Amino acid sequence: MKISVITVCYNSATTLERTLQSVAIQDWDDVEHIVIDGGSSDGSIEILSGVSDQLHHLVIEPDDGIYDAMNKGLYRASGEIICFLNSDDYYASSSVLSMVAERMRTHKLDALLGDVGFFYAKFPEKMVRRYRSDRFKPERLAWGWIPAHPALFLHKNVIHRVGRFKSNYRIAGDYEFIIRAFHGQNLRYEHIPEILVNMQMGGASTGGWRSKILLNREVLRACRENGLQTNILKILSKYPGKLLEFVDF
């Protein structure tokens, strides 16, 4: 099974090489790495040019935001399994993609969910939080729960049905996309209780209280647009459980 890994980046020179290397060392032979750069000016383009022979698609051009860039990656993806790896994240081991491919093939899965370990930029080897995707169930979408997106692997048939990300979202477009993928669809999915991706703290969804306010507004909007009955109190109720992610490793 071919796996398409999509990485979108913009001015990510300090972390990009680590991300690219974590894909390059995967022991699964059939991997298609697609990189979409929004026109970086910090040296990212030079890094990408240096490894262009390792990339199946490299697009360097302005975009209308992260979800527009992710859609460009989806348009070019030809794998049976499709996933996203952020430009400041990296796979936890060289066997992540082989584990995913074998599990999805033998169990005939529509989706595979893994965990994500969070770290601070100054201490990339020290995990400070673990996002456990087994806490997600489709019926919990109205409460704001989704699987960890960087460790979510979808079969191409799901992508073809769901379509693209809505680029008029700024921060919760992946949440809205996951609603369309899972809500009322009876997908065959499993959870691997392992950290598959290490994710740097401080991104759009972990960047402080302003980000949280925008995130929850867009989560509320995403539920309403997709016919999920919810309210802001439901959505906020997930935060006490999320505090456990900082201690329950």
Question: How would you describe what is shown here?
Answer:
- 40% of the residues are buried.
- It is built from 9 helices and 9 strands.
- The protein has one domain: Spore Coat Polysaccharide Biosynthesis Protein SpsA, Chain A, CATH 3.90.550.
- Strands 1, 2, 3, 4, 5, 6, 7, 8 and 9 form a 9-stranded mixed beta sheet that branches.
- The protein has 249 residues and is an alpha/beta fold.
The first-level CATH class name: Alpha Beta
Could you give the order of the helices and strands? EHEHEHEEHEEEHHEHHH
Apparent shape: globular
CATH evolutionary superfamily: Spore Coat Polysaccharide Biosynthesis Protein SpsA, Chain A
Classification by helices and strands: alpha/beta
Q: What is the count of structural domains?
A: 1
- The proportion of residues forming helix, as a percent range, comes to 25-40%
Shape-level CATH architecture: Alpha-Beta Complex
Strand content: 15-25%
The averaged pLDDT comes out at 92
Number of strands: 9
Summarize the main sheet.
9 strands, mixed
Cα-atom Rg, whole angstroms? 17 Å
User: What do we call the CATH topology?
Assistant: Spore Coat Polysaccharide Biosynthesis Protein SpsA, Chain A
Uncertain residue ranges: none
End-to-end CA span: 31 Å
Query: What's the helix count?
Result: 9
